[in-house]
Amino acid sequence: MVSIVARTGRQFQRYNQGCRQVVGCIPYRYKTDKDSSCGAPIEELEVLVVSSQKGKGMLFPKGGWEIDESIEEAAIRETLEEAGVLGNVGCKLGKWSFKSKSRGAFHEGYMFPLLVKEQLDFWPEKNVRQRRWMTAAEAREACPHWWMKEALDILIQRLEKGQENEDEDEAQSL
């Protein structure tokens, strides 16, 4: 079942030795264009970014991991709430420790790839966020967070090696 209301508050979020645990996804798809020189289709990777609530750049959807959900469920929920997309979540891209710019607190961030299967017209944070498909290079430029850029680099490396496709059978979907 898809929740149509974003969760709020931090009373049910996970912490590890005082570090808030946040989870997110890099939503991606392949845009097919025709090559003008020979007419063959070309697949170009696109990633979905959302505007920051604080108005500082575009980033990948992420938020608090709550005590009543698995890490993958949290990643899927945050992506639905902030970006309004559904799809198949792949194997974890990594774990990062970073300091929050707004609160000065340390966080543990986990990122997953999400192959988008459905883009919703209405989603919980539609009125407070913009979403935009862009190339990986554009996203790397637009995103202010070093750790999200590293996660994007790992995703690109996996996709170039074909590893995400191999993991598709194991991926959790919503």
What percent of residues are in strands? Answer: 35-45%
Query: How would you state the average pLDDT, rounded?
Result: 86
Q: What fraction, in percent, of the residue positions are helical?
A: 10-25%
Cα shape: globular
Let me know the largest β-sheet: 10 strands, mixed
Distance between the termini: 9 Å
Order of helices and strands: EEEEEHEEEEHHHE
How large, in whole angstroms, is the Cα Rg? 16 Å
Would you count the extended β strands for me?
A: 10
Low-confidence stretches: 166-174
Decide which structural class fits the backbone.
alpha+beta
The DSSP helix count reads: 4
Structure description:
With 174 residues, this protein is α+β, with helices and mostly antiparallel strands. The chain is globular. Strands 1, 2, 3, 4, 5, 6, 7, 8, 9 and 10 form a ten-stranded mixed beta sheet that branches. The model is unreliable at 166-174 (pLDDT under 50). It contains four helices and ten strands.
What is this entry, summarized?
This protein has helices at residues 71-83, 136-142, 146-161, 163-166; strands spanning 15-16, 19-34, 41-51, 58-59, 62-64, 85-89, 94-99, 106-119, 131-135, 172-173. It has 174 residues and is an alpha+beta fold.
